[in-house]
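Write out the 3D structure for:
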Amino acid sequence: MEPNTAPKWIACGKSMKISENERVITKNSNTCKFGVALSERLTDTVYEIDVTFQGDCYYFAIGLAKSTIPLNDSLRRLNPGSAWFILNKGFLCDGKTFPDDSLDPFGVGETIKVTFDRERGRLIFLRNEISVGIVDGLAGEDLRFCCYMDGENASCSIAYNDPEEANREMPPTITATPPSTNENTNNNLAEP
């Protein structure tokens, strides 16, 4: 994907910062134990990003979320149907539920490729070009990339890839839970 079509990262928790080039998200304080960053709404057909976490983060994740999620809390505390992500401890998550907790953990410095195909409603996670998790059934107009981490000196680097490479066939592993309401939300990001 060309850099000018890459989604912008537009919101983050108060202990986080988005770099000017929108390719690095940092968590530089423990004002809030956890922080979440969100991209703008995903409107293109296919997106593919490479994500690498660095620093002192113990928990970190990458995936998709609704705009209404809280930015200063753990994605793992959300109701199912609001965020779908892969957690570094080896869990494929749908909010606070773990549809698959049998994945190999990944560490700081490892790169995870994330592909989202809006037409198919499919989110794919790859490590070393091998599928480590797939979420099917994602629909809706308000899906965004999300990045989640703890720590006081942590970062997430993002590289955008050619979407044509993202059109690989892989078997589904889980189906997303329909969205539910969450009282602790960030409604200022919701789009009409």
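The chain has a mean pLDDT of 84.
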